[in-house]
Amino acid sequence: MRLWNGVLWLSVAGLVAWLLVRGFGFDHRTPFAQLVSFTPYVAVCSLVPLAAALVTRAWRIAVVTGIVVAVFAAFVVPRVVPRGAPDGVRLTVMAFNTKIGAGSVEEVAALVRREKPDVLTVQELTPEWAARFAALELFPYSALRALPGAAGTGIWAKHPLTDARTVDPKSGFDQTFAVLRRPGKPPVEVVSAHPRPPTIRPEDWGSPRRWVGDLERLPAASDSGPVRVMAGDFNASLDHSPFRELVDTGYVSAAVQVGKGLVPTWPMNGNHAPPVTIDHVLVDSRGGASSFDAYTVAGSDHRAIIADLVIPS
C-alpha cells in the first residue's frame, strides 16, 4: 500500500508541475513551449489518479488530486461553454494553412463555393499555390505576400482590400495586413496570422524565443478605429502564455465563444502526435462569433477553419 501511495503521489507531483508551467507562463523555452499544447489531454488524464485514490480510499491523495483536477477544469472547461454573440453584421472568415503549397486547391475551392466566406486568409502561401487558386477566380480582390517555403501569407476577399502590407518586417514569417472595405459598412482590419513555430529540433533550439517575438509583433486589440480580425495558424493554443497575453488585450476567440475551443486543427495528416488547437479566428471584443467549424483538407496537416463573425454596424 505504501508503494501504491508513492506512485499516486508521484503522479500528482507531475500534474502539479504541469499546472505550474501552464499557469505561470514557464513555456518560453523547449520543451515546455511544445508540451503545454497537450494540456487538455493531461487534464483528462488527471482524473485517473483521482479515481484511483478514491477507489483505494487514499483520502489525502484524493483531496489534493481533486484540487488539481479542479484547476485543470478551470483552464480547459470554459472553452467548451458557448456564450451569446452580440448584434451586428455577419462576416464569414475562413483560414487555411497549405503546408507549403501541398494542400488541395480543389478541396479549398469546394469549401469556398459551399461556405461562401467573405474573407479567406492563407498561410504558408507559395507562389505556385497562389497562382493555381487565383486562376479559379473565386474572389475578386486579394492582398498576397506569397513566398517560397513556409513564410508567405495572403488574403482573398469579396470586397476591396486596401492598405496592404506586412504586419512587421521583423517577423520571421510574413503576416499580411489589409483593410476590408465593404460598401455601406464600416471597414474591417484583417490579418493573416502565422508566427513562427516553437520547434523542438536541436539545430533550432532558440525558436521559442523567436516564436514569442512573432506573437508579440501581432497588433494588440483596440476599442477604437476599425474592428480587427486575425485569422490563421498562430502556432499556439490557449494554453500558451504568449498567445493568452495577445488574446487578453481584448480579442474574442470565435471557437471559444461558440463552445468549440477544443476542436483540434493540427496535425491532421496521420502524424502520431495528438492533435491540438493552434489555428484560430480572433475578433476584437467589439465583435463576436455565431458559429465555428473545421474541415480536413487533403495534402495539408492543418484543417481549414471557418467562423461566422458578428461585426458591429
From TrEMBL:
Keywords, ordered alphabetically: Endonuclease, Hydrolase, Membrane, Nuclease, Transmembrane, Transmembrane helix
UniProt name for this protein: Endonuclease/exonuclease/phosphatase family protein
Residue ranges of the TM segments: 6-25, 32-55, 61-81
UniProt keyword Zinc-finger, yes or no: no
Residues covered by the Endonuclease/exonuclease/phosphatase domain: 105-302
Keyword Disulfide bond: no
Region named Disordered: 187-207
Listed InterPro entries: Endo/exonu/phosph_ase_sf, Endo/exonuclease/phosphatase
Organism: Cryptosporangium minutisporangium
GO MF, any single term: endonuclease activity
Signal sequence region: none
Any Pfam family hit: Exo_endo_phos
